[in-house]
Amino acid sequence: MAQGPETIAIIGCGLIGESWSALFTAHGHDVAVWDPASPAAEPLLERVEGARRQVRRIEGRGTERDGRLLVARTLEEAVAAATWIQENAPESVPLKRELYGRIEGAAPPDAVIASSTSSLTWSELARDMRHPGRFVTAHPFNPPHIMPLVEIYARDAALRERAAGFYRSLGREAVVLNRDAVGHVANRLASALWREAVNIVAEGIADVATVDAALVNGPGLRWSAVGAHMAYHLGGGGEGIAHYLEHLGPSQERRWATLGSPSLTPEICAMLVEGVAAEAAGRSIAELEAARDEAITRILAARKEARHAGE
Amino acid sequence: MAQGPETIAIIGCGLIGESWSALFTAHGHDVAVWDPASPAAEPLLERVEGARRQVRRIEGRGTERDGRLLVARTLEEAVAAATWIQENAPESVPLKRELYGRIEGAAPPDAVIASSTSSLTWSELARDMRHPGRFVTAHPFNPPHIMPLVEIYARDAALRERAAGFYRSLGREAVVLNRDAVGHVANRLASALWREAVNIVAEGIADVATVDAALVNGPGLRWSAVGAHMAYHLGGGGEGIAHYLEHLGPSQERRWATLGSPSLTPEICAMLVEGVAAEAAGRSIAELEAARDEAITRILAARKEARHAGE
Fold this sequence. Notes:
Chains A, B: InterPro entries: 3-OHacyl-CoA_DH (IPR022694), 3-OHacyl-CoA_DH_NAD-bd (IPR006176), 3HC_DH_C (IPR006108), 6-PGluconate_DH-like_C_sf (IPR008927), 6PGD_dom2 (IPR013328), NAD(P)-bd_dom_sf (IPR036291). The structure is a homodimer. The first copy, chain A, has 13 helices and eight strands.
């Protein structure tokens, strides 16, 4: 898994770009960031240093040399010497295609171009590239310096493996898809669940805070330890998923038929906004985010200890 | 929240009944169990004692007096002095209705009758009862001595609150539904997610182990800390769910339209069984369950510490 340091360009430096910058530099890679909004260098460096402290806490790192972090004045300057380019622009196909044209014109010919896109596909993004063989979608879960998941797809199998190796070298859990799909895997799953979460509120079965509490103390908690497929392999009295499918498959299909297909009408949106406000109970978004990050950081440590205890 | 000890009858003592027995007795309640399969008392008591050790570890308890655990020869004997009856029979409406008839004939008139049903509704189960005002569905997440969630519904609002108070006194996170629904809240969410998890495998986007890894390191991990609704309130750059719905609601609706509606055909079932076998990589169900319980036990402790750190 050991790889030499990359020279990285971060194209688009909002929340995701800042978080990537912290992760990459904490692992010794030099980073040049560029954002069309020209973020002021000092507050940016402070935010990245804050995130890097979280990386060090999660990984127990601290002795290695951090990579350098530079704010470039132009995209061309950022990518000129890059070996790895991580693009985090807004989710617009024309905008990203235009950026890839500029990147291909200014970057070394063998630099990898990785997109953090959450909802666009490799095929639509790569369409106009001169060298699509070096293009990979590498979707992190927000914030990428805390959440382990990176979802990878490239048409070229060797690039898929190279990208998986690179993100794993950063302590990420990289997964490789067999083909590209809107929302990759994780956001497809999240969308499917949230559709029913909205439906439960819309149908008056339970309010927003109740739905969230049920998830966090039930299936969400379980899925932080085992996946959905594996969960049906377990918990059935030791008989496994084949037995589950044979005996309870039909009842799952009947339950699927009762799930809802809500629309985000103004009335339903108002219920969601009010419900989240009730659940937040006066806590600001910054406070809630800090509590979430604190919980996830400790849960990551707990999972690591559980794995070691089982070895 | 302090309540006096209940005298509890466990009707149906498979995995769920054993787990409830451990939780109830660990909290000082006397329990009489009855199961038509007449489980041999000694192995049952051993399994319950094993589960009770896990309860003590999670809750840091150990000094209080454990409740007594008796194996009754008949249902009538089990419920004769009960104040709380927890029914965990197979998911069959006629079977459960018949049991409720026998329970109503033999139990004290003010005993609460609680059903652990995962997929049947209060309305269909209560239909033939003489006193449905004392009937409540109280669905735990398996195994209930480890997983905090209990989902509660009764037509009578006072009983809903009484039941919530009782399960909270056992360290559970009880949530109260506004009306009954197939699968309550948690299994509706789990079914919605699993439908798409099956679809992703069926469409060849990713294999079983990849789907599970994406869930465990992405949305599952996140949902062990914050719910699905709250997750959309956060992570959008501090602008909250109203902003999210306005700007990204339409793209969620477009993604919903791309989700699949698979059937559990023999071909798809075979892909799931093979995929889970590959993911298990030779580990037995018992080993996988032990690893899951170890992870969840440590994650519960981590969440508790995170909450204390934030106070």
